[in-house]
Amino acid sequence: MRVELVKRPQRSALFSALSPFIAFALTMAAGAILFLLLGINPISAFYTYFISPISEVWQLHELTIKAAPLILIAVGLAVCYRANIWNIGAEGQLIMGAIVGSAIPVMFPAFESPIVLPLCLLLGMLGGAAYAAIPAVLKARFNTNEILTSLMLVYVAQLFLDWMVRGPWRDPQGHGFPQTVMFNDSATLPALFPVAGRANWGFVFALVAALAVWILMTRLLRGFEVRVLGSSPRAGRFAGFNFNRMVFFTFMLSGALAGLAGISEVTGAINQLQPTISPGYGFTAIIVAFLGRLNPLGIVAAGLVLALTYLGGEAAQTALGISDKVARVFQGMLLFFVLGCDTLIHYRIRFVGLGAKARGESEAVPAAKLEEVH
Amino acid sequence: MDIAVNILLTIATAATPLLVAAIGELVVERSGVLNLGVEGMMIMGAVAGFGAGYLTGSPWLGLLAAVLVGALFSLLFAVMTLSLATNQVATGLSLTLLGLGLSGMMGTGFVGLPGERLPNLYIPFLTDLPVVGRLVFGQDPVFYISIALIAGVAWFLFRTRTGLTLRSIGDSHTSAHALGIHVLRYRYLAVLFGGACAGLAGGQLSLVYTPQWVENMTAGRGWIALALVVFASWRPWRGPAGGYIFGAGRNGQLHAQAFGIPVPSQFLSSLPYLATIAVLVLISRNKRLTMMNTPAALGQPFVPDR
Amino acid sequence: MKKLLIALMTTVAGLSMAATAQAQEKLKACWVYVGPIGDFGYSYQHDQGRLDVEKAFGDKVETAYLENVAEGPDAERAFERLARENCKIIFGTSFGFMDPMVKVAKRFPDVKFEHATGYKTADNLAVYNARFYEGRYVMGQIAAKMSKKGLAGYIVSFPIPEVVMGINSFMLGAQSINPDFKLKIVWVNSWFDPGKEADAAKALFDQGADIITQHTDSTAPLQVAEERGLLGFGQSSDMIKFAPKAQLTSNTDDWGPYYVERVQAVLDGTWKTGNVWLGIKDGAVVLSPYTNMPDDVKKMAEETEAKIAGGWNPFTGPVDKQDGTPWLKDGEVADDETLLGMNFYVKGIDDKLPQ
User: Fold this and answer.
1) How far is Cα B300 from Cα B33, in angstroms, rounded to an integer?
2) Which CATH number among 1.10.3470, 3.30.390, 1.10.287, 2.30.30 corresponds to the domain B2-293?
3) C92 and C146 both lie in a single domain
4) ipTM summary value
């Protein structure tokens, strides 16, 4: 028996809605086997993993903290990917945004004023955008592949941050440890509901960014340009759209959002620069972008789900003694099922018996491109 | 003279896993598939290689296990992206996440154990020759395999009919399909080959380079391998060049430090990355040449129509 | 076959750390690690300490841990989670956990917090650290005795006081034997990258060093020494299995005694905040058995170790700074404050400290 995919004439609205649930059910089934093999009660494992993180107020706050940078970055990356431009260096742009945005509170720690925070955020966005402009320039001017340049620049940014916090920006009172001074209150991103938990304005930024990009992509000419150039560069050129300008636009937009994510992390949750400020948000966000089907609103959901799997994984470690590796394997399984079930939106699955080998020799239909996968 | 030989040997050992993983991924990408899961397949190869080598006492069986497990793990990617037409970028990244977790799980019992090391080649007389002896006749087996792989892939892609077919699929799966070529079958095999190579690269890490198992021991090498494919502009012989430039940059900065050059180590550490970018900028200015070698259908799913 | 079975069993045992039935009266002690416990280095040694606690208290204590916790917002969540899950004492083992721990400790006054390698304390937040430099002094002496060229290579991660202190102590030890001893230093900018550490070891050997030591976590440099028939020192854990002919000794961390003592204090209700810096005499820094050296060198090492255990500080004057300005007068002992913030080299080191 063979499995074959048959393309649906239109994306199925039914499976669009249903596929996450099918994926969830399959994850539960496979997860149950995994946990039974490890001698863990699947019911309590699932409860700890999926329910406990959203059953307490403080964890909901933590969920938004974890999800905010993922959503912010993924929304920007989605625009890039729609245009078929491959920025995979968001991690570096996040770091550069954080560094540039921290300039005021680090260099003038005594400067307190209501304009400090907005300036920080603005500088953070500029820093991220400027760093993203490097691969854009190289691509537009020298035709250099942006996958390589944006990835390599991540490592450079990490080393640069490392040098900054150990060298020029090290806190003189910090006992020689690699960190800057703590930011003063006027450079701190306020909590949303300080009494209840840590959630800060970063999550609001993420939601606003998602909404703005959604409007851009569906209502504005620029969004149309992105989609046209992404699905068919040649058609785009005939329509008078400039590809190089698009490279700059998408890179700098996603860079600015990654930079905003970085400076929000630093001003919101950490309050100083240190050698590590991101546990790989820039890379995880790539998965979030695709889990959300490159749709800004889908990305909000995907970001929350992925954040949940991190929190659930931690809960499972402490409550059940499931190791961090098992938690990551389970997370991987979930991702695979979600991606796999999304297939049902565009294709019907057909089971073909061994005998049925006859092949249509007719003309092939162009494959589904990224454009159609949203 | 001896020091120069030693430095070259160090660079070769450091560059080999990058090359091996890159040459595998190059074939995958030539077939039009983008597998970003190299890091995940590599770490699976590393744990399998160490485990099998340790349990059987034979590093050769370890290497074999690394190759097989790498291929097996890539099968998961193949089923997802080829049979189910899932998004390749997301699936590849998920594969890396899964691989890092799964390898940690499998390797729990191997932490802190000394492993088996694959012996270097030794041919009496030849290996003892001054200078060239150890460089040409005294390296580890994976080094020779890597050279053979690159030569083999170069020959296969550009000198055989099957290679031509593979490349044509990468350029346009629709036209290839129209010609009656089994697009998915080719792609399955290409992905499996890529997985086997990544597994081999992982095996080199845990059986030659640093014979031990520790979590996350690939330390980002899979990503560098991916970058090398781009650097090579999808041409096999440029891969080793890139790998050796990168390896030389990394090694050069360590030597510069030991020599006492007063430049912050972070700047020296970032040199290999910057050098790779600079060289790529230089060689990719010829737009037509680059376009010609870039698989046009890279990353796009293909579903045969009936 | 037996090997296979044992390995399989340990794997399974490692995987199936099944949920232990939660008895009511148990004290819960918890740990947060920055790396994976499978690093066979820093986090691994802390986890060995946790296992010692389990062994020592049996049914009276249950433990939990979170590994691979990134410094930053993830860390704060990790401590908050453990505090909320009824951990009565929580150990954070990385310097970068300091400010998150300070914040969480404020919110949970009834939970005891213990932070390794930091300097901020509170009523319910104690700090602890180990005087690794004590072991490094002994290693420096051994190196000076054993090196034929009077030149050692030093592989280091990041320029923080802890690491600089170690380099200086090693050098002072070496100079006490051979005043002209030389040191080559390579920063790899990573705590953990076996390949890069191996390359650094090779580079140092190629440039003439015949002994290496490291302040990074992997066994790779020692394996290189073994391959080349040269010598080296282990780090964090005893690495003799990886380099039976190359390891002279290893500067290992044993956190077990401290962890047992502190958990006991919570059980007894006698826990108090504090700032302790444990050394050889407390059993927190342990030099693994001296191997691959002649008896006279071994005897010297043992004597120095005993002297340090008796209270002598390797940073005892006269010591000059790298640029020749005097630091410690004859007989003057460095105070802990200076050591903890150390950002200069002592005289005789050629390298320039990255600033």
Assistant:
1) 7
2) 1.10.3470
3) no
4) 0.89
